Amino acid sequence: MGVLAIFAVTVYTISLLYITVYCVLQFNLLYNYKKDNPMPGDSEAEAILEEAAVGSRRLNSRKLVAAGDVENGSVEESFEAWPMVTVQLPIFNEYYVIERLIDAVAAFDYPRDRFEIHILDDSNDETVEVVANKVAELKAQGYNIEQIQREKRQGFKAGALKDGTKVANGEFLAIFDADFVPEPDFLRRTIPHFNDPSVGVVQTRWEHINRDYSLITKLQALQLNVHFTVEQVGRMKGGHLLQFNGTAGIWRKKAVEAGGGWEADTLTEDLDLSIRTQLAGYRIKFLEQVGSPAELPVEMNSFKSQQHRWMKGGAETCRKMLPSVWNSDLAFGHKVHATSHLMGSTIFLFVFVCGVFSVPVLLLFGELVDMGFSKNFFAIFLIGLLSIIAIYYTANVQSPANQDKNFLRSFFRFLYLFPLFLALSMGLALHNTVAVIEGYRGKKSPFVRTPKFNINSIRDKIKTSKYLTGKLNWITIGEGLLAIYFLAAVGAAFYLQNTTFIIFHGLLALGYGTIFYYSVRHLGIGK
Fold first, then answer.
1. Phi, psi dihedral angles at 323 (to 5 degrees)
2. In this structure, is residue 81 part of a structural domain?
3. Among 108, 120, 357, 403, which is least packed, fewest CB within 10 Å?
């Protein structure tokens, strides 16, 4: 039994160490985010941005620095200075939301003769007809818009973008997924940043149309807010590699070509091309102050499908691009952060292992103490938890992008949501671990898009099971069993009078139980 106790505590400790190191690297991004360290060219870009924003609000004489000087001219004259943009909308069976997206893009406050809309439509349902009718309507109003269809959905989204780039006339390519509703001034607030020739991509912050729809959407927003504040800005200020997030951003067409173009050998084609393009010499500009509203998944199984694609794709991209990162001429610190970034999905594997092995550590704790082991040893790993608390607090309470006018309301909202977020994040560990292992093993799977249902407020409901699979799988069953496993561990803690892990096991039981409950409950949505 002594050997078993040593093995269990060793595996548990290694897992905790990995999690802690990852959290410390994340804390370094928080340090970068908080420090006053503007990026080169920021002051000029902000001046351009403000000028463009003024032009959106006020139809009078102005100077456009972005693409040439037009002194004291009319807006129409100034418009001619703006570069050509191709707005690409890669879609597949988006019956409920595609009209909303097309209408939003058509409302761009940008000269009609300086942008074209390409709907890269791989749909095989009624969406095709909906798009065709909308395209005909807008063409009649003078818009440059096309519905582009392929005979075969080769390469999924990456394939659609690759083929779409060949027929794009724009110098810049703006990309939006179907769940987004960009603001009218999107192009005016982003294009000026390409005045810097080193900028290959401009990425904007995701906002959440339906954040308050349910507990699931609230917790998703809590997590995404971290990526779109602390992580992206922290990496940018630190000079590290960033990522294009697949949507709500603009590419310089030459940057796409420099990176080798879109490739479909991973499920995260956006992260893949981001790394290749930056290694080719371009950089990514992230705009925290420019928000792009989007619809969050409201149904658990759709959310898990999205997580599977992100986690597996992240592992696939890590496997593909990590050697290139370490063979590049990046500084050592940048390589370390790029490694942490590419291996980000791997954190769930270690959370899963840490949770599973914590139970035998609890049961064999007496033997470990007899061998001279001190339970206070684990206290050093609290640094990881404290780092995550600081990061999430900053992103969701202090960040200018997410700051609530009522500080107390924002603060108590965070106190309520953060423990639940920890629980549900750990509850996703089994599901995401399977995805990560598949990615590292090289097991291929199709690109499964996340269904959207035009859910904008708490009054909206999913009225149909269209696009929902509704199948109970072994992972969901495993989540239910793990909830029982950790609930038993809580009972064992009282029996053994050792509460060292009781909060940890309680959160795990809550997390796995909640994921299991919603996964089963949502199988019947819309039926």
1. -60, -40
2. no
3. 403
